[in-house]
Amino acid sequence: MESDSERVARQNAEREEELRRVPLQAIDKSKWPKGVRPISTKESDGLGIDSDGRLYWNGKPVEIIGRRLDLTTTQTTIAIIVAVFTGIAAFGTLAQGWAAYHDWACRNKQPSILACPATDGR
User: Which has more confidence, 2 or 90?
Assistant: First the structure.
């Protein structure tokens, strides 16, 4: 069993290692919005920070507005599939619009990109 002095020494070593990996950051309270207060000493154990500076409260990441969007693998896959099918739909719409214009141009003796089919004079 670990003695109190050993436990304190281990905790201090762990804290020093944590601070080496993720150093303390300077706090500027003048930039805080109104209605925000510092956390109390009793609440401080709920806060955490990782090596990229992301904030955690009670083990859960705190959502920061203006940060990049992180998608899960499933969400990324679905987004790619939607983008591919949107591109296919856009190409289909373009082809349909071109075919409609070509048909209209041939019927109304207007310029068309391809030659109009020969008519039998009816």
Answer: 90
- Could you give the CA distance from residue 80 to residue 70 in angstroms, rounded to a whole number? 14
Rounded CA separation 5/8 (Å)? 5
Least confident of 1-10, 31-40, 84-93: 31-40
Report the pLDDT value the prediction gives residue 77, as an integer from 0 to 100.
96
State both tokens at 6: 């050993």
Record the pTM.
Answer: 0.40
Per-residue pLDDT averaged across 6-19, rounded? Answer: 92
Query: Which residues, 6 or more positions from 54, have their beta carbon under 8 angstroms from its beta carbon?
Result: 61, 62, 64
Angstrom distance (rounded) from CA 76 to CA 112:
42
φ, ψ dihedrals at 48, nearest 5°: -150, 160
Buried (b) or exposed (e) across 14-39, using 16+ Cβ within 10 A? eeeeeeeeeeeeeeeeeeeeeeeeee
Output Rg (C-alpha) for the chain, integer angstroms: 33
Q: What is the mean pLDDT of the chain?
A: 87
